[in-house]
Design a protein that fits this description.
By secondary structure, the protein is of the alpha/beta class. It is built from 21 helices and twelve strands. Helix 5 packs antiparallel against helix 6 and helix 6 packs antiparallel against helix 9. The protein starts with a helix and ends with a helix.
C-alpha cells in the first residue's frame, strides 16, 4: 500500500480535474436516475389523462434531464481522462527522476526487457487506479445516497431495499472478490515482464542463435512464455466477467424486490399506484454506476502489483543519496586530486569481492595507467571513480570532500569518458559528435575526426542504431573524438583503443596526451606498451593492487609488472 500511497500523492496534484470529474459524474448519475424516474412517472400519469400542461411540463423535464445527463457525462469523461493523462505524466516524470541516478547500476539487478515492461506496461496499468479504483466508488456512494434519500420520502421500505443493494454491491461483493482475487494471485504483470524479456533476448541474440542453430529452441521458449501470459490474461478476464455477472444479478434481483414491495404497497393502499413505475425505473437506473464496482477488486489488485513492481526498482534511493540541494560543486578554476581510501566493492548478488582494500591517490594533473589481467577489477575501479556504483566500504575523496557529496551530474559534467562499450544513436556522425556540445562547429568536428584517423567519414554519414554500421575500431575512435570535443579536466578511459591497430593507436594517444597535458587522466589498459609517459602505473590482480610506481621503478623491482612485461615481449 505504500507504493499506492505514492501514486495517490501524485494523483492528488490534479485536484481540480478530480473535483470536476466527481461533480460531473454525480450530476450525470443523478440526472440519469431523475430521467428514468420522470419517464416512469410520465407513463403512469399519461394513463390517467391529465391536463395537457402537466404532460408538457413532464415531457420538458424528461428532455432537460436527458440533455443534462449527456452533457455532464461528456464533462465527466473529459475531466477524468484529462486528469488520468496528467497523472500518468506526473508518474513517469517522478519515476524517471528516481531512476536516473541509479543508472547504470540498475542493469545489474534487472534485465532490460523486464525493466522496459515495468517502465511502459506497469505505468500504463496505473491509469486504471483513478478511472477504476479511486473515482467510481465516490460517485456511486453520492448517487446512491441521494437516491435513497429521495425514495425515503415516498417509501421507507423501498429505501431500505436500495440501501441493502448498495451495501451488497459497494462492500460485500467487492470484499468477497478481493479475497478470491488474493487467492488467485494473478501473475499478468509478471508474465508480461517475462514475455518482454524473452522477446528482447531473441531480437538481440538472433544472429548468435542462428549461428549456433539454437533459434528454434529460443523461439519455443518465447511461445511458451506467450502462452503463459495469455493464460493469465484469460484468468483475469474470466474473473472480471464473473464479477460483472454477479453484480448484474444482484442489481436485477433488487429491482424485482422493489417491484414486489411496490406492488404490495399499492395493493394494500399504502402507496399511490402512480409511483410504482417510477420506483422500478429508479431501481433499474441507479445500479448503472454499480457496474464499476464489479471490476473494483481486480483493478485494485492490479494497481497494487503495478505500483509495487514499478517502485521496487527505485525503492530506497531516497535514503542512499544526499538531498539534491546539498550537493557540492566542482570548482571551475582548478583540478582536484582523487584519493581512494581502503575501498572495497562487491556487485549485487555476487559472493566474491570485486575490489578489496584499494588505497591509491591520483594527484591533480597526473597521468595514471591501471593494468592487469582480465577480471582483475580495473574497469570496476574506474567506474567507482566516476560514481557509477557506490563503494561498500571505504571512501573516495575529491579534493577535500567525499564523492558521496557530489552529484553524478556534476562529476560527469567535468569528465571525459570512454568506456569499453559506448552508445551511438541513430542519426549521423554529426549528431553523435554533438553530444559533446551543441555549439560545436563543423570545422571543429572535422579537425577531431582527422586526429582519430576518421577523416574519410563525412559529418553527414549515417550512423545506424547502436552504431551497427561501424566496426569496433571505428566505434572506439568516434567515442574518443566525442571525448576530445568535450575537453574537460578529468579523463577516464577504459580500453579506449583495444580494437585499434598499433600505428593508429600511437597517433591517437599523441594527440590525446597533448590535449590532456594539464588534466588528470586515468587509463585502463591491457597493453603495456607506451606506458613510459605515465606518472604512475597501478598493477591489479584479483581485485587488489599488487604494486604501483613509475615504469622505471616497476621494471627495476622485477615484480609482477616486470613479469607481465616479459610475457608480453615473448608473445609479440
Amino acid at each position: 500500500m505504500k507504493d499506492l500511497a505514492i501514486v495517490t500523492k501524485l494523483m492528488l496534484k490534479e485536484k481540480r480535474d478530480i473535483f470536476y470529474s466527481i461533480i460531473a459524474g454525480f450530476i450525470a448519475g443523478i440526472a440519469a436516475v431523475g430521467l428514468f424516474a420522470a419517464s416512469g412517472y410520465l407513463i403512469s400519469k399519461a394513463a390517467l389523462a391529465p391536463p395537457l400542461y402537466a404532460l408538457i411540463i413532464l415531457t420538458s423535464t424528461v428532455k432537460l434531464l436527458g440533455f443534462t445527463r449527456a452533457l455532464t457525462r461528456y464533462a465527466e469523461r473529459y475531466f477524468s481522462h484529462r486528469a488520468t493523462f496528467t497523472i500518468l505524466s506526473n508518474l513517469r516524470v517522478s519515476f524517471f527522476e528516481k531512476l536516473e541516478p541509479l543508472t547504470p547500476g540498475i542493469f545489474q539487478k534487472y534485465r532490460s526487457g523486464d525493466l522496459l515492461s515495468r517502465i511502459v506496461g506497469d505505468v500504463e496499468s496505473l491509469q486504471n487506479f483513478f478511472l477504476r479504483v479511486f473515482y467510481p466508488p465516490i460517485v456511486l456512494m453520492m448517487v446512491f445516497l441521494s437516491t435513497i434519500l429521495f425514495t425515503l420520502y415516498f417509501s421507507i421500505y423501498t429505501a431500505i431495499v436500495l440501501l441493502i443493494g448498495l451495501v451488497l454491491i459497494a462492500f460485500v461483493v467487492p470484499v468477497l472478490f478481493a479475497m478470491k482475487q488474493r487467492k488467485i494471485n494473478s501473475q499478468v504483470r509478471e508474465e508480461r515482464g517475462r514475455l518482454s524479456t524473452e522477446a528482447t533476448e531473441l531480437l538481440y541474440g538472433f544472429r548468435d542463435l542462428k549461428i549456433y542453430q539454437k533459434l528454434r529452441g529460443k523461439e519455443q521458449e518465447l511461445l511458451e512464455t506467450s502462452k503463459s501470459y495469455i493464460s493469465e490474461q484469460e484468468k483475469e478476464e474470466i474473473t472480471i466477467a464473473f464479477s460483472k455477472s454477479v453484480n448484474t444479478f444482484i442489481s436485477l434481483f433488487i429491482t424485482w424486490v422493489v417491484l414486489g414491495i411496490g406492488a404490495y404497497l399499492v395493493a394494500t393502499g399504502q402507496m399511490a399506484g402512480i409511483f410504482l413505475a417510477m420506483f422500478v425505473m429508479i431501481a433499474i437506473t441507479v445500479f448503472e454506476d454499480a457496474a464499476a464496482m464489479a471490476v473494483f477488486p481486480i483493478y485494485l489488485n492490479d494497481s497494487k502489483r503495478a505500483a509495487n513492481r514499478l517502485f521496487s526498482v527505485v525503492r530506497g534511493d531516497e535514503d542512499s543519496e544526499v538531498e539534491s540541494g546539498n550537493w557540492k560543486e566542482f570548482p571551475d578554476d582548478k583540478i582536484l586530486s582523487i584519493e581512494m581510501d581502503n575501498v572495497s566493492f562487491t556487485f549485487p548478488n555476487e559472493w566474491r569481492k570485486t575490489l578489496e582494500d584499494i588505497t591509491v591517490e591520483f594527484p591533480a594533473g597526473s597521468k595514471t595507467a591501471i593494468v592487469g589481467p582480465s577480471g582483475s577489477g580495473k574497469s570496476t575501479l574506474l567506474q567507482l571513480l566516476m560514481k557509477m556504483y557506490p563503494a561498500d566500504v571505504g571512501d573516495i575523496r575529491i579534493g577535500d570532500f567525499s564523492i558521496s557529496d557530489v552529484s553524478q551530474e556534476s562529476l560527469w559534467s567535468v569528465s571525459n569518458v570512454v568506456l569499453q562499450e559506448n552508445h551511438f544513436f541513430y542519426g549521423t556522425i554529426r549528431d553523435n559528435l554533438q553530444l559533446a556540445g551543441d555549439e560545436l562547429t563543423d570545422g571543429e568536428m572535422e579537425e577531431v575526426l582527422l586526429k582519430v584517423k576518421l577523416d574519410d567519414f563525412s559529418l553527414a554519414d549515417p550512423v545506424f542504431e547502436k552504431g551497427e554500421n561501424l566496426s569496433g575500431g571505428e566505434k572506439q575512435r568516434l567515442a574518443i573524438a566525442r571525448t576530445m570535443l568535450k575537453d574537460e579536466s578529468y579523463w577516464f578511459l577504459d580500453e579506449p583503443t583495444s580494437s585499434v591497430d598499433a600505428l593508429t593507436e600511437q597517433s591517437i594517444y599523441r594527440h590525446l596526451f597533448e590535449q590532456a597535458k594539464d588534466d588528470t587522466l586515468v587509463l585502463v589498459s591491457h597493453r603495456l606498451t607506451g606506458l613510459e609517459r605515465m606518472d604512475q602505473i597501478i598493477v591489479m590482480d584479483q581485485g587488489r593492487i599488487m604494486e604501483s610506481g613509475t615504469f622505471e621503478e616497476l621494471m627495476q623491482q622485477e615484480g609482477y609488472f616486470y613479469e607481465m612485461k616479459e610475457i608480453e615481449k615473448d608473445l609479440f
